[in-house]
Amino acid sequence: MPLVLLALLIMALSLLAGLGPRLLGRRLTNDQMSDITGIAAGLLLASALLVVIPEGFEVAAATSSSDGGFVYEPLVLGGAVLVGFLTMLLLEGLGVGHDIHEEHHDHAKGHGHGHVHHPTSARSLVLGLSVHAMADGVAIGSAAAAGDAAFSAVIAVAVLIHRVPAAFSLGVFTLHEDHSSKRAVQSVVAFAAATPITMLVSFLLLDGADAGLIAMALLFSAGTFVYVATVDTLPAVHNTEVGRRSMRNVLLGAAIFAVVLWLASLGGFLDHSS
User: Where are the strands (E) in 24-78, listed by range?
Assistant: First the structure.
C-alpha cells in the first residue's frame, strides 16, 4: 500500500533529521536553519493555498447535488479553514506551541534564561510539535481518502520539507535540555511518529466516508497549514535585522512550490481521474 510506504518514508526522514544534531554535532548555523525554515514555510503556505484548499472545495463540489453547487455552503467550507487556523492559535495560547527556533536561539545567546531550563519546557514543545504534526497527517490521510494519490503525494512532500528543519531543531533543543539521551531520543521518535500514525488513522476513518466530511477535513488541515507557516515566519519578517532575508526565503519557497506544481500539471501528473 503506497500510503504505508509514504508513512514509513516520512517517519524515517523525520528520525534522521531529529537525530542529526547528535550524529553531526549541530553543524548547521542559526542563519542556515532560519533560511531552511523560511523556505519550508513558503512551501507549506503554498501547498495550503494552491493544493489543499482547492482540493477541499473540489471534493465538496464533486459530491454536490445536481444544481452545480457545493455539498455544504461555501461559508461552512471556508469556516473549516478558519476553525483549523483558530484551533492552532488556541493551542498556542494554551502553551501547546511549536516555537522551537526562538527557544533554541535564546538558549544559544543567553544561557541565563530560566524558561529554557524549565523541566516541562521540552515536554511542552514535543507535545506542541506533535499536535502540529498530527494536523499534517490529517491532510495527507484526507487527500488519500479522497482518492487523489497525486495530490496526497504533493501535500506529503510539502509537509516533509517543512518537518525536516522542525525535527532538526527539536534534536538540537533536546540535546541542550535533556540530560538523558534516552529521553531525548524518545522525544524525537514521538514527533517523527505523529504524522505517519495520524495519516494512516485518518485514511482508515475517512476511506469510504461521506465526501463532504473528507472535504471538511482537508479544509480544516489547510487552516492549520496557514497558521504554522505564518507563525514560523512572521517574527523573523518583522525583525529589522533579518526581515528582508526571511521574506525572500518565504517567497522563494512559495515560488518553487508553484513552479513545480505548474510543471507537474503540464506534465499531466496532477490530472483528476476520478
Answer: none
Give the cell for residue 2. Answer: 503506497
Query: For the chain, what are the domain ranges?
Result: 2-19+29-265
Quick check: pTM over 0.85?
no
Taken in order 211, 207, 219, 46, the sign of the CA dihedral is negative
Q: How far apart are CA 186 and CA 138, in angstroms?
A: 23
**Cell 544561557 -> residue:** 111
User: What whole-number distance in Å separates Cα of residue 134 and Cα of residue 257?
Assistant: 22
Per-residue pLDDT of the chain (274 residues; tens, 9 = 90+): 588 988 999 999 999 888 887 776 656 677 777 888 888 889 989 999 999 999 888 888 876 555 555 667 888 999 999 999 999 999 888 877 655 544 444 444 444 433 344 444 667 778 888 888 898 899 999 989 888 778 788 888 888 888 888 888 888 777 766 556 778 788 889 999 999 999 999 999 998 888 888 999 999 999 999 998 888 788 778 888 888 888 999 999 999 999 998 988 887 776 654 4
Cα-based distances in Å from 206 to 47, 77, 157, 196: 21, 17, 21, 15
249 within 8 A of 40, measured Cβ to Cβ: no
Nearest-angstrom CA–CA distance, 42 and 234: 12
What residues contact 165, with CB distance under 8 A and at least 6 apart?
Answer: 17, 33, 36, 37, 40
- Which grid coordinates belong to 45? 503556505
From residue 229, give the alpha-carbon distance in Å to each of 58, 65, 210, 238. Answer: 23, 35, 29, 15
Contact (Cβ atoms closer than 8 angstroms) between residue 157 and residue 7: no
Q: At what angle do helices 121-145 and 2-24 cross, to 10 degrees?
A: 150
* Rounded distance between C-alpha atoms, residue 60 and residue 213, angstroms: 9
